[in-house]
Amino acid sequence: MATIYRINMSDLTVRREEADGDLRELGGRALTSALVAAEVPPTCHALSEENKLVIAPGVLTGTGAPCAGRLSVGAKSPLTGTIKESNAGGMAALGLAALGIKALVLEGMPAGDTLYRLIVHRDGVRIEPADDLAGLGNYDTVGHLFGQFGEKVSCISIGQAGEMRAAAASIAVTDIEGRPTRHCGRGGLGAVMGSKRVKAIVVDPAGGSRPEPANAEAFKAAMRKFAEALQKHPLTGQTLPTYGTNALANVINEAGAYPTRNFSQGQFEGVEAISGERQHDVILHRDGEGTIAHPCHRGCTIRCSRIYVDESGKYVTKGPEYETVWAHGANCGIDDLDAVAQMDRLDDDFGLDTIETGATIAVAMEAGILRFGDAAAALELLREVGRKSPLGRLVASGAEVLGKVYGVARVPTVKGQAMPAYDPRAVQGIGVTYATSTMGADHTAGYAIATNVLGVGGRVDPLKPDGQVELSRNLQIATAAIDAAGLCLFVAFAVLDDPKALDAICEMFAAYHNRPFSAGDLLELGKRTLARERRFNTAAGFTAASDRLPGFFKKEKLDPHGATFNVPDEELDRVFDFA
After folding, report:
1. CB of 250 closer than 8 Å to CB of 543
2. Would you state the pLDDT for residue 206?
């Protein structure tokens, strides 16, 4: 089946349709962007009834393919004003795939203030009032839902930030343990869900079954080939399972690209205290409920997540992941791993993008609201979001808004979205991605760190402009295709270094659809997706002038290299020459 459910929140009706034509073979980001581009007016207000929230598992999700459990959520972003796709792990994508659901499309907007929950099951979608969940964080929300619907369901939910329709609001997805730790974080899509007055979506996979590839035997062979390639690669087979994503902290710090104190420095003197190696040792020493090599969904073989615990061994939060540790750590001048873990827990509970929130706290420090390095004050500032105070609403609105309100000139955003954990002056390729991505500053859109710093897929000098546009372009195309498949971004490490990994993905697509599928077809899928997104953004009013970094990255030299971002504007304008 390839079922699309359209949930009209204006009249509280559900319509079922079968995907046809081009949509039938799309999934993940390719499907969310296709539907948003075709059906959402580009100039509409992102929190109006004209916007739509599209939720879609990837093409390969639920098939048993390794690391293919990603869930894509798409809409016009209230943070950036662009088209947006944000994806997460967790169990909901697998549940939707088991039910034969291609996409859920939330449309319209209800009258009044009633909150609703959607119950997705084998016979369709049911809309129920959910005012009993009003004002709850994600942890209490899913606790109530699991108590009502049992522990075999998965949940997609928003916290207080989403209810406030805050521009940094995320959408939480429950993990294997039923905790709301996997987030579609970027772009404020939790605010769009909140504008539809949908507090939570319960996915009950009972009675469903694994999607069946057209050629099951060929698919199994390709799966084994892919799993072997992931296991053999040193990053996906060894480093990430052992030290998690935060293994990058020392590496990026050594490269002079670890943004510190609101991107004013490229190295953090306290990096060891918040590194992946330290995190690994703390979890093992504290024992209890702590876990390393933790999968974010069933079928993840990389297992880059962890379960972090307090001194008594009790659960605090997942990870925290590299971006989260950096955003609340080095970027705020904080070297306290326990404090970072507490902030991560609050972010997940309130439903906030950890990157945007950490960047916002750092801008607040730049503004003098609190001091760099003051972990206690940072935690208290974050708690204001849960209180829904005016200051909390400002924090939940993102770095650019807070910077404008407090008159801060140095705000590291592109198209309104905060930059992640790599300084573009020391890694020029990621600067190209930040500037030109269809979705605002986003490292996952074209992860040039792989080639600029890690030497994966070759080597391009991170401090020189030469070759950076081509690198970012190729990675943005490939990433759009990976997002469409429902695969984790980290599989790209193996794909870039081992031709067998790329062959295996194409062979899985071919076996699934029962037709030839080449590397060229995979890249064409990525190109078509990016072209749709670019057309939407152009119609929304974005121009070449929007594809630029803030001016201080070209003027302020970053130690230890004394580097500025020096990829010429005319080269940035060539990234999407193929579209």
Report:
1. no
2. 95
What's the pLDDT score for residue 22?
A: 83
Task: Tell me which residue of 461, 458, 433, 463 sits closest to 446, measured CA to CA.
Answer: 433
Cα–Cα dist 40/35, whole Å = 8
Phi, psi of 141, deg, nearest 5: -60, -50
Tokens 């792990």, residue located: 89
CB 297 within 8 A of CB 71: no
Q: Residues of the chain with pLDDT > 70: what percent?
A: 100
State the residue for tokens 């939910």. 157
**Residue 1's pLDDT is what?**
61
Cα-flanking dihedrals φ and ψ of residue 256, to 5°?
A: 75, 25
Best CA proximity match to 425, nearest among 576, 265, 544:
265
Respond yes or no on whether the N-terminal peptide bond of residue 420 is cis (omega within 30° of 0).
no
Q: Please give the angle made by the CA atoms of 501, 87 and 355, to the nearest 5 degrees.
A: 110
**Rounded to 5 degrees, what angle do the CA atoms 300, 301, 305 make?**
70
Map tokens 């995907």 to a residue.
19
pLDDT digits (tens, 9 = 90+) for 563-578: 999 999 999 999 999 8
Residue 287, pLDDT score: 85
Residue 432 neighbours by CB under 8 Å, 6+ apart: 446, 448, 468, 469, 471, 472, 567, 572, 575
- What number is the average pLDDT over the span 394-402? 98
